[in-house]
Amino acid sequence: MGKGARKKAISLGFTNFRETILFCRPKKIRMMFSKYMPDTADAVKEYLKQIDPTTEVTSSGGGRNNTFYMLAPQAQLYVELADKMAGMAVPNSNNHVIKMNIFCNNDEYIHAIANTAYYRWDDGLLNHIDLKKIEKKYKVKSEDVLAAWKAIIGE
């Protein structure tokens, strides 16, 4: 599939929009040809298609690390969702860590996308993420990860 949506987002100037970065993990994953698709990517894709039927999704990567590029041109919204393995068992969703880069100037869309990841669990995402794995894979501080979520979700 490649990075077609990314190239279009750059050419349209969407990567110059305000960027919101959130880290999370999927609740479930499913096999998609030679790679795994986290439920978070499916949920974001479905939300984007609801607000913009012209949404385009492309991906790159392989069995252990994948990136999903989601462009909603009419909504002026672009999301990159990187899924990296942080453990040996690929089919185990506990071993996946996700970085979502949301490029958008519309707070309503940003909150809705954050909610799709956060509320995959009844008690919220923060009770289910492994901050050590996120720190190791993405070289970020736990405090920054938590602060970003609290700024969006308000907890």
Number of domains: 1
Count the E strands: 7
Tell me the structural class: alpha+beta
Number of DSSP helical runs: 5
* Major β-sheet strand ordering: 1-7-6-5-4
Q: Largest sheet, described in full?
A: 5 strands, antiparallel
Name the poorly predicted regions.
none
What is the rounded Rg? 15 Å
Average pLDDT: 90
Percent range for β-strand residues: 25-35%
Q: Percent range for helical residues? A: 25-40%
Order of helices and strands: HEEEHEEEEHHH
What is the overall shape? Answer: globular
The first-to-last residue Cα distance is 37 Å
Secondary structure topology:
Layout: H1 4-12, E1 19-24, E2 29-32, E3 35-38, H2 39-51, E4 56-61, E5 65-72, E6 77-85, E7 96-103, H3 107-118, H4 131-138, H5 142-153
Antiparallel strand pairs: 1-7, 2-3, 4-5, 5-6, 6-7
Helix pairs in contact: 2-3
Commentary on this structure:
This protein has 155 residues and is an alpha+beta fold. It has one domain (4-153). Helices cover 35% and strands 29% of the residues. It contains 5 helices and 7 strands; from the N terminus they run H-E-E-E-H-E-E-E-E-H-H-H. The strands form 2 sheets. Strands 1-7-6-5-4 form a 5-stranded antiparallel sheet, sandwiched between helices. Strands 2-3 form a two-stranded antiparallel sheet. Helix 2 (39-51) packs antiparallel against helix 3. The longest helix has 13 residues, at 39-51. The N and C termini lie far apart (37 Å). The model has no long low-confidence stretch (mean pLDDT 90).
